[in-house]
Specification:
- The structure holds 2 protein chains of 2 kinds.
- Chain A is an alpha/beta fold.
- Chain A has helices spanning about 1-20, 35-60, 70-85, 95-100, 155-160, 170-175, 195-210, 210-215, 230-240, 250-255, 275-280, 325-340, 355-370; strands spanning about 60-65, 85-90, 110, 125-140, 150, 185-190, 230, 245-250, 265, 270-275, 310-315, 370, 375.
- In chain A, the strands form 3 sheets. In chain A, strands 2-1-3-11-4-8-6-7 form an 8-stranded mixed beta sheet. In chain A, strands 5-9-10 form a 3-stranded mixed beta sheet. In chain A, strands 12-13 form a two-stranded antiparallel sheet.
- Chain B has a single domain (about 60-285), classed as MetI-like (MetI-like fold), CATH 1.10.3720.
- Helices cover about 75% and strands about 0% of the residues of chain B.
- Chain B contains 11 helices and 2 strands.
- The mean pLDDT of chain B is about 90.
- The chains are: A alpha/beta, B mainly alpha.
- The interface of A and B includes residues 187 and 217 of A.
Chain lengths: ~375, ~290
Amino acid sequence: MQDGHCALAMEQQARILGASCNFNYENGGNHMKRNVLFRRGLLMALCLIGAASALNAQTLLGSGATFPAPAYTKMFDEYYKATGIKVNYQAIGSSGGLKNIQDRVVDFGGSDSFVKDTDFAKYPASIVHIPTVIGAVVVTYNLPGNPALRLTGEVIADIYLGKITKWNDKRIAELNPAVKLPNMAIMPVYRSDGSGTTFNFTAYLSAVSTEWKSKVGNANSVSWPAGQGAAQNAGVAGVVKQTPGSIGYVELAYAHQSNMPAAAIKNSSGVWVDASLASISASAAGAFPPDSRILLVNTNAKEGYPISALTWIIVYREQKYASRTLEQAEHLAKLLWWMIHDGQNFVEALDYAKLPAPAIKAAEAIIKSITYDGQPVLK
Amino acid sequence: MNDRRFNALLGLAALLIVFVFAGFVLTLVVQSLPAVKQEGAAFLYSSEWNPVTARFGALPFIIGTLLTSSIALVIAIPLSLSAGIVMGEYVRSGWLRSLLNTLINVLASIPSVVFGLWGIEVVIPLVRNLAVLIGAPPYGAGILSASLVLAIMIIPYMSSMTREALMNVPAGLREGAFALGLTKQEVVTGIALPFARQSIFAGILLSLGRALGETMAVTMLIGNATRIPDSLFSLGNTLASVIASQFNEAASDVHRSAMMRLALMLLLITMIAGWFGRTLMRKGASAYGK
């Protein structure tokens, strides 16, 4: 098998490097001269650089979004067990991932938002988006007894706009007739760091509230009219858990793993939907664009959870650039193919939703369109 | 290795530091140019910081930084001066002295993220209870929580510098004062403190420099809201905390550049405080010699 062959060759290369980099300090003793030490140090440094570049050849390198990182780590671990190919993914954030793929210093970039048409010019060549998993942003809260709540997008937007300030506000009460709501101040909590989570949450609020769209807008960090910021999902979850009366938005995994309540939200078809792996996956089950660049928020899928979000891996369509070999391109395409098929079996345990059939079909076509020197990489 | 080579090596190393610093400042200046071009001087007095519309005004962060640091100073100065006077004047040896010394050294070596965690677990709930009691917004996080923890973080520096300043008061001066029949309290307030005041003030300024630039603990406690704080219980942001929270995912180039400009500003403010402090310290140290 080609993959195995490559791994073997790399191992040999590493061994040769290792042999020439074999230092023996015991012979030196007191007589070792300083410049000998210095030369050995220099040699060792050179060898380390050599070893690092040898590593690069047998390893696929990616960087980007933190949101899918746990799923990627698990997938890449399984992929390594199955094929012996190492994939090194650095969760440095979506912006960083896009920057790295722009600069062509990684094999693939991970991003929670797709590249806009107007931004394509920033890339030296044509790029493609491959959807990998679907996540969701859930609205969590801290109320006495933590009753199950129902909220609409408009109400959530008005809470974050600072227009609804009490939990027993009429507009919340009429959505939740069975719940006795306390006369308590609502403390909205948001992500202080720029994040894909914020991007998707504000995309949803912009889709359902014209006031939100005009006053605040949609980005991975925005100017919040009300509330308190906390760093990362864990920070928001922490503040919400600590602050009675607070409301926050976090990724499903965080709410689930720390046993926090999540509000049911009315989707655009008028159905109350809880955030579950099934309803999140369903959000992408409607019409799916061939280039996979679609915002799932406020989905029109009937059973779909309305604050669902795709995350993508971004690669160059033409893989022959810089000093890339056909072999590297093949490794990359095979990895992507594996991720949208076998890899999907590992994500649900980590609270990510699988890609539904239409998304997989689109992703297959995209991966098949990846070329090396004009020839398709996957036959 | 002969002398000449040794000297050359030392010179080279020293020069390298100069280059690193120059390169550092140059990077900040060059990278902040887009923000300078777009916002001009409005950067300093506009309170609109909106990544969506790409408008960047730093006023809320400037106020947040100055406010938290000054409140921290107000809290820390009496405590640190008292601790410094106790160690520098009253218990100059013995077990109590070594206990105090150890405690202050330990306090100085606690990483700021640990202070942040402690603040979240202890200070924020306390401040929240206080806020509920007086009817302020019950966030807990905010200017007051950040300032309280900042104060505790700078107490070790301020108190040990006060102690050093008092220890440097010449024994002759003190003995002379006692010989003239002054009481202990009179010697401390009338002789030692006035003599050491420049060094003590320098210590305060150096602590201020630390407070201005403190990042981790403040980011964890201040509530990260881009608004001009209007009370002790308001949420806010400082120059350092906004850089820490937004830099990684700054999507637009101007946003990035605006943060470089914040960093430059922070660098200048802390440099001025530090330089002023050190100048005073030198003066204080040489005052008696003249």
